[in-house]
Amino acid sequence: MLPQEIIHLKRDKGILSAEQIHEFITGIGAGSVDDVQVAAMTMAIFLNGLNKRETIDLTIAMRNSGDVLHWDGFDKPIVDKHSSGGVGDKVSLMLAPILASCDVYVPMIAGRGLGHTGGTIDKLEAIPNYNTAADNSLFRKTVKEVGCAIIGQTGNLAPADKKIYAIRDVCGTVESVPLITASILSKKLAAGLQYLVMDLKCGNGAFMKNFEDAKTLAQSIIDVANGAGTQTRAVLTDMNQVLGATAGNAVEVKEAVEYLQGKNINPRLDEVTRALCVEMLLMCHRCETVAEADKMFSDVLSSGRALEKFAQMVAALGGPTDFVEKYEQYLPHAAHIKPIYAAQSGYITAMDARAVGLSIIELGGGRSTPAQKLDLATGYTEFAQVGDYVDNTKPLAFIHYQTEEQFERAAKSLINAVTIGEKQPEQLNPVLLKM
To answer: How many CB atoms lie within 10 A of CB 113?
Structure first.
């Protein structure tokens, strides 16, 4: 069937067969479907949607457009976690070694920053010589020997998704639940996962700002992943403020290491990480009750096993063998660190997390163009939380910066990103819903 005939069918609100979807996606790689046809198809899907079966077929076709990893000979559950993206979200850095310490394999393929949200791979590249572009052989070897490995998307993993996403980004079709679902899951299914837990961010710092929209996307991901053979659960978490006490790249790696060391633990960050771990341990039957899973989580942290797994992963992927002992020496540092204070004293009653994320781009720690080289040292530490009291002695945050111009821009953005009031607001649970 000609590509334009498949486009016509969806344009006219028809239902696509598995064969038609497979033919269209295969044509993208073969060159028989060109960019303008991909743009037309994504717009037809954006306007008319896909049903559950169509979305499963699209996801599988995109998965099969490149390499699909297999874990033959691996005798423990193959698991992963994926986040829809947020500001200060360094959960993957802790969760992968924590899960690996719970006797499962974690082959985590993560992404770079997108828009105002940070990326796990950018953060890991603050570690000297850490190989985020490991080939499949080193990836498998590290997962087998350590239990976890976090790397970036390889060149031939769901290549159709790369092509489709780039076109969606410039033709106004990003915000489509079926296309988002297929984009996320095609890469995860290509990683050969048995179990997946989704961290769906919801709030002003997330791509899904509305709770009902986030819930709809979560249900779509659960339905499609389970329909394609990967058992999946979702946790909706709050992204109406920075997650944790840091936002940036190197500064978030530092917070992650210190969390694994059992010091400077941010309560909201801990609650989100713990919730995701517990859901996974229950889903893959490592634990039978929430209490048992919660205890296992606490035990691997307090015993130092998770910290050891992180150290082993870093070393196996080319980083320093003594990184967790000397992380302060190895991580890059900005030329200057200075506190920034709110315009008035009072309680932080609200925060625009998206504005904070955009201010990191102004510091050079995020991308304004796809090929931009990041300044991994810049960012924020000791970030105040909603409900905290701030005055001329208690800053909003400490800004890590290279030039005074950067500081002035970031300081202005940060002051404008917080709302100060006289009454302390109610503390909201960072875990909104488990699905």
So the answer is: 22
Q: Which two tokens stand for residue 358?
A: 């955009």
Of the CA atoms within 13 Å of residue 2, those in its CB half-sphere come to: 3
Judged by DSSP in three states, 259 sits in: helix
d(CA 113, CA 379): 14
Read off the DSSP letter of residue 65: T
pLDDT digits (tens, 9 = 90+) for 301-356: 999 999 999 999 999 999 999 999 999 999 999 999 999 999 999 999 999 999 99
Active site residues: 80-83, 120, 168, 183, 187-188
Scan for tokens 């850490």, then name that residue: 130
pTM of the model: 0.91
Q: What angle do helix axes 305-316 and 250-260 make, rounded to 10 degrees?
A: 140
d(Cα 430, Cα 193) in Å, to the nearest integer?
A: 27
Terminal CA-CA length for the chain:
39
Domains of the chain by range and CATH? 3-49 (no CATH), 79-316 (3.40.1030.10), 331-421 (3.90.1170.30)
